[in-house]
Amino acid sequence: MNENKKKFICIRCGCCCKAVGHTEEDKFLDNGNGVCKYYNDQKRECIIYDFRPEICRVDKMYKRFKDKMTWDEYVDLTYESCEKLRQLDKEGKLGKIIN
Length: 99
Ligand code: SF4
Ligand code: SF4
Hints:
It is a single chain. With 99 residues, the chain is mainly α. The protein is globular, with a radius of gyration of 14 Å. It contains 2 helices and 2 strands; from the N terminus they run ββαα. 24% of the residues lie in helices and 4% in strands. The chain has helices at 58-61, 71-90; strands spanning 39-40, 45-46. The mean pLDDT is 92. The longest helix is centred in the C-terminal third of the chain and has 20 residues, at 71-90. Bound molecules: iron/sulfur cluster (2 copies). One iron/sulfur cluster is lined by residues 10-16, 82, 85.
């Protein structure tokens, strides 16, 4: 029985790309102000999308959580995280775009 029912749909708000550098793992992405050096804010896209690191890939990151939750729960949690990031963005609390 396949439990993987939900599909994660990214609406390309770009908020997760403006919230990097808080962990050792994504420090290398930080352009110095919390925004990813590979994020193009005008186009709202990742300029290395096809080659983006695992930490940016919702599907691949599931392997880190699969013992703790189902795929559907993981997708729901990810949507919640996206929403929280959008709220922080509205409050001006995410990284500032320089370009
Ligand atoms: S915060 Fe979520 S919806 Fe927005 S770009 Fe990132 S993954 Fe996509
Ligand atoms: S590498 Fe791409 S997907 Fe990952 S944070 Fe940077 S701009 Fe976003």
